Amino acid sequence: MIKKVAIVGVGYTNFRSTTPDLSYRELTYEAATKAYEEAGVDPRKDIDSFVSTAEDFFEGYSIADEYCPDQLGAVLKPVNTIAGDFLQSLITAYMMILTGRLNIVAVQAMSKASNMTTLGELELFAFDPVFNRPLAENPHFVAGLEMNRYLHDTKTTREQCAKVVVKNKKNALNNPYAGHGAKITVEDVLNSKIISYPLTHLDISPASDGAVVMVLASEEIAKKLTRKPIWIRGVGWCSDTFSLESRDWGESTSTRLAAEMAYKMADIDNPKKEIDVVELSDIYSYKELQHLEALKFCNKGEAGKMIDNGITEIGGELPVNPSGGSLGVGHLYECSGAQKTLEIVLQLRGEVGKRQVKNANIGLAHSWRGVPTTTSVIAILGN
Amino acid sequence: MNNKKLNFKGTALRSSDIKEKKVLTTSWKPSLQYAWDDGVAIGRYLKELKNGKIIARKCKKCGRIMIPPRMFCELCFRPTDEWVYVKDTGIINTFSISYVHWDARRIKEGEKPFIPAVIEIDGASEGMGILHVLGEVDPEDVKSGMRVKAVWKSPEERIGAITDIKYFKPIIER
């Protein structure tokens, strides 16, 4: 029997295109203060260990992990940093508590995308220097390649992808923390400028800033700290080959395998029936549909019909990205999975007002690390 | 290790071989640029440096007066409470005398070594310092505990940067 671990406190800033008023330290401090207040813990006394999320090139520091402790209250405490997505950090913190040696662990992620003034160059720097970089242009072309193959394989249409953008930006209008809510039409998406065919400007989530901190605790402590613990039921993570030459372009295989791992752990046989609310990676519009298939909410090629039939709307059978997703909240880089997890926690607690999904008891948070990566991470949370 | 020359198999590679394209290479010159938001604390700190002043923040709980200033106390984990001007004089906590440049080139004959030092600033709490460099001092005269004072650039030259202070120099006690 695996020990139970719960999320007992969340803290977050708003997510906006720019945050010129606060340094990255002050941004994380705001999220951390809120999380500790909600969990009723003093980071200097009660928290046993801290896991931060930082990727050196995103932060603009080499060894960026050394700059994480102060704003988390983690000075002279056990800290480690994951150079990945927040969900990977969350799983690391979860495993720390499973060891039985640590009872309360804090997890952090932050995006200051607005401070990366050569973002395209920086993403290009993630490409293989021998095989790909000499040929490469704006890195969105990788998503263009993938979208095209996905549409070809599944007969999904660009209109169906555009509907994802319309839905998510509409959901974001009811989300005070989201920075990119809008009332737009399918035509608006299709007619916006082509970035890398078939992707248009509006198919791509806009880079944004923000910070999230969460507090995790073992079962005994969690029950003392909160009346609304959100339990971690299952986790999964997976990375495919880096190769742009030989990866599966039509399917997110890493998402499918991570999902199988998480479903097995959470004892889920029929995800569509058993999961009430989903926050999945929609850094690009087609990704929401591709990920729905990889997460086994439908068969391959059927996700387009789900959006056509309103199944993924907030009032639908399987609400997807009620927060607005990355398209509506903003692309948060290594903090992406944090926003997904945050929304699931708030939904399961029933605290999101107009965008509340009814009877939400089990939720799934998924993240993908963006182009050119093939890493996917999943956490299944429950009341 | 003995002094006998080891006879490795293979061919030695020289930098000239790369220049003359005798070996296959590929290169990439990244252009990575950042514009960090200074935020409240660092923003004010830099603005005051431009004015020729050093400002700190005080935490009323632990009583520390901290430079560089910060909006939260990392030890108490609470917001700091007030701005406090501190002096531009202090005491050398520790120092080093560096005879190499950042890329490990040795300084030239007659060139002065670089003397980085942590200076505990008068008016700030014990152990709170500025990392800067020392000037107008012979390397052999530098000592921990020595009193020093900031040498500022002229107001026209100052831009709101840590380099608005040129260096710290010893205070001659009379």
Give your account of this protein's structure:
The complex is a heterodimer of chains A (383) and B (174). Chain A has 383 residues and is of the alpha/beta class. Chain A has 15 helices and 11 strands. Helix content of chain A is 37%, strand content 18%. Chain A has a 9-stranded mixed beta sheet. Chain A has a two-stranded antiparallel ribbon with strand order 5-6. In chain A, a hairpin with a 2-residue loop joins strand 5 and strand 6 (199-200). The two termini of chain A are 18 Å apart. Chain B has one domain (39-170). Helices cover 10% and strands 26% of the residues of chain B. Chain B is built from 2 helices and 10 strands; from the N terminus they run H-H-E-E-E-E-E-E-E-E-E-E. Chains A and B meet through helix 1 and helix 3 of A and helix 2 of B.
Major interchain interface with per-chain residue totals: A-B, 34 and 22 residues
Strand order of the largest sheet of chain A: 3-2-4-7-1-8-11-10-9
Low-confidence stretches of chain A: none
Termini separation of chain B comes to: 57 Å
Which secondary structure elements does this structure contain, and how are they paired or packed?
The complex is a heterodimer of chains A (383) and B (174).
Chain A: E1 5-12, H1 24-39, E2 49-53, H2 56-59, H3 69-72, E3 79-82, H4 86-98, E4 104-112, H5 119-124, H6 140-154, H7 158-173, H8 186-191, E5 194-196, E6 199-200, E7 209-218, H9 219-225, E8 230-239, H10 253-266, H11 271-274, E9 277-279, H12 285-294, H13 303-308, H14 325-329, H15 336-349, E10 362-368, E11 375-382
Parallel strand pairs in A: 2-3, 2-4, 9-10
Antiparallel strand pairs in A: 1-7, 1-8, 4-7, 5-6, 8-11, 10-11
Helix pairs in contact in A: 7-12
Chain B: H1 15-19, H2 39-50, E1 54-58, E2 65-66, E3 72-73, E4 78-79, E5 82-86, E6 89-95, E7 116-121, E8 129-133, E9 147-152, E10 165-170
